[in-house]
Predict the structure.
Amino acid sequence: MADQLEDIMALLNSGGLQPGMSEEELVKRVGPPLKKSKETEKLGPGEQFVYPDGSGWFVFVYVADGKVTAVRH
């Protein structure tokens, strides 16, 4: 979990976690999400991947058609 936390924050802080990144690359680089759920409202159909950020907050990564479409932190 600590390594995953460091990976997601390093990727986020470096600007490497951006729309267009493939779902496969995301999971390869930071591991599976803490939680994964269907997203059908705000950003259209797809999935929401939830990663902890280590400070009690979360990084929300939205994926549709195998690509990252948005990141919220």
